């Protein structure tokens, strides 16, 4: 799959994803389902930011890559 996530978008995804993972880890045993969901969403955001590829963007025809 071709890259479709631009530099600013990638930085924002990594920052927000890190916040979600952190929130998930802090919630821990108090709310295990919410904790796992937050950590999962954050992990996907970090992965799409790190690779510059987003399958949802591909399906929607969105491309934020600066050319």
Overall, the morphology is elongated
Question: Looking at the chains present, what oligomeric state does this protein adopt?
Answer: single chain
Radius of gyration: 13 Å
Strand content: under 5%
Broad structural category:
mainly alpha
What do the pLDDT scores average to? 95
Topology at a glance:
Elements: H1 7-27, H2 32-51, H3 55-60
Helix pairs in contact: 1-2
Pfam families: YgaP-like_TM
Protein name: DUF2892 family
Domain Inner membrane protein YgaP-like transmembrane: 1-65
List its salient traits.
67 residues; 3 helices; single chain
Q: Can you tell me about this structure?
A:
The chain is mainly alpha-helical and 67 residues long. It has a domain at 7-51. The chain contains three helices and no strands. The protein has helices at residues 7-27, 32-51, 55-60. It starts with 6 loop residues before the first helix and ends in a 7-residue tail after the last helix. The mean pLDDT is 95.
